């Protein structure tokens, strides 16, 4: 007797299922609705943290990748731009694409085209590396501010992060610089919220990366669903995709026919974040609940209310990190002629993570300025 294949039925409407996620089967329509409800529910939980339970003006971080484009779809749906939205969560939206050394022209073209066609009322701003590095300071391997080197701005942009010897340190500093610039842009554009498209997979990878890099104090500020940086308490940073795995977002985007830039992880996995991300992507396929558990656990952490922030990354830091660093590591000799007392004074406002990432610096690193405009 021939055995017939079991037909999976959607758990919601009992139609033929097309996808199985977290042990549940869904038809296409119910799956799309399920993912959207998860994201929108997170947004609704964030309303009490906002003045008048809505954001007057939000800066949306758009890289063109899977997570950020999925987030933009939901933010636009919840905004006042949708005519039948009787209770919008967002007023004006500004989608910002920040050029990084890893960015491509194709990414920028795709983002601009998609926003123009699908989200026409959303303002779009492309910020080139030249723009945000036009006013910068220079730091050495100790985190101390030094004199500007005699090189052109164009040369600085091309070689700046090549001066960082380790690929993990380079990526770490790029992430800190990106967040610093986006926070500054939120200030300059008078935005009361800054929205990131970090999925549960990304947040779990961030948590592991921060622990490995000695940035444990920064976990609440870097992964929390709603945080207000101490240097800019008037801006609420939102991460509404924390309940959705990256694999689920990929299926969701495919079903809705939404465009995004597909970025495959380097097979060599040379950075701490890439190793962590690859681990949680694989883990999410077989044990999705474990990824969610890590994100929820990190969400229970809180930073000290009166804590000190790093001058470079603007994240909460452990005090007296220079003493801890000197007692636990052996640093290579440096050709900088600074007294021990001078080094100590400069290091008091630089966190352990930034110290380690700057440790192998070959030449002064250009770092964008941050001007706090506290309320």
TrEMBL record:
GO terms for cellular component: cytosol; cytosolic tRNA wobble base thiouridylase complex. It is found in: Cytoplasm. It comes from the Eukaryota. It holds the Pfam family CTU2. GO terms for biological process: protein urmylation; tRNA wobble position uridine thiolation. Gene3D superfamilies: HUPs (3.40.50.620). The keyword Cytoplasm applies. Pathway: tRNA modification; 5-methoxycarbonylmethyl-2-thiouridine-tRNA biosynthesis. Keywords: Cytoplasm, tRNA processing. Signal peptide: none annotated. InterPro entries: CTU2, Rossmann-like_a/b/a_fold. One of its GO terms (molecular function) is tRNA-uridine 2-sulfurtransferase activity. Belongs to the CTU2/NCS2 family. PANTHER family: CYTOPLASMIC TRNA 2-THIOLATION PROTEIN 2. Plays a central role in 2-thiolation of mcm(5)S(2)U at tRNA wobble positions of tRNA(Lys), tRNA(Glu) and tRNA(Gln). May act by forming a heterodimer with NCS6 that ligates sulfur from thiocarboxylated URM1 onto the uridine of tRNAs at wobble position. Prior mcm(5) tRNA modification by the elongator complex is required for 2-thiolation. May also be involved in protein urmylation. This is Cytoplasmic tRNA 2-thiolation protein 2. It comes from Schizosaccharomyces japonicus (strain yFS275 / FY16936) (Fission yeast). The gene is ctu2.
């Amino acid at each position: 007797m021939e055995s017939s294949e079991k037909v999976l039925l959607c758990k919601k409407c009992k139609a033929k299922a097309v996808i199985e996620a977290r042990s549940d089967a869904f038809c296409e329509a119910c799956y799309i609705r399920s993912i959207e409800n998860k994201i929108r529910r997170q947004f609704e939980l964030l309303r009490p943290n906002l003045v008048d339970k809505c954001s007057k003006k939000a800066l949306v971080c758009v890289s063109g990748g899977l997570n950020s484009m999925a987030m933009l779809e939901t933010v636009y749906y919840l905004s006042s731009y949708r005519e039948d939205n009787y209770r919008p969560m967002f007023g004006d939206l500004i989608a910002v694409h920040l050029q990084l050394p890893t960015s491509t022209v194709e990414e920028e073209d795709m983002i601009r085209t998609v926003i123009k066609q699908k989200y026409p009322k959303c303002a779009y701003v492309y910020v080139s590396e030249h723009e945000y590095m036009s006013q910068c300071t220079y730091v050495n391997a100790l985190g101390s501010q030094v004199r500007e080197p005699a090189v052109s701005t164009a040369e600085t942009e091309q070689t700046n992060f090549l001066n960082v010897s380790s690929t993990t340190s380079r990526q770490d500093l790029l992430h800190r610089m990106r967040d610093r610039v986006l926070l500054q842009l939120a200030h300059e554009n008078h935005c009361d919220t800054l929205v990131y498209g970090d999925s549960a997979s990304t947040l779990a990878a961030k948590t592991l990366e921060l622990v490995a890099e000695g940035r444990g104090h920064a976990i609440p500020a870097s992964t929390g669903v709603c945080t207000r940086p101490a240097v800019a308490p008037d801006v609420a940073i939102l991460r509404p995709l924390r309940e959705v795995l990256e694999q689920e977002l990929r299926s969701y985007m495919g079903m809705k026919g939404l465009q995004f830039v597909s970025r495959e992880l380097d097979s060599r996995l040379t950075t701490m974040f890439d190793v962590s991300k690859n681990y949680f992507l694989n883990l999410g396929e077989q044990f999705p609940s474990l990824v969610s558990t890590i994100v929820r656990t990190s969400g229970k952490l809180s930073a000290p209310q009166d804590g000190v922030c790093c001058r470079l990354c603007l994240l909460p830091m452990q005090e007296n990190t220079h003493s801890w660093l000197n007692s636990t590591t052996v640093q290579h000799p440096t050709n900088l002629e600074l007294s021990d007392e001078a080094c100590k004074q400069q290091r008091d406002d630089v966190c352990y993570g930034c110290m380690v990432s700057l440790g192998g610096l070959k030449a002064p690193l250009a770092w964008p300025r941050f001007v706090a405009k506290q309320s």
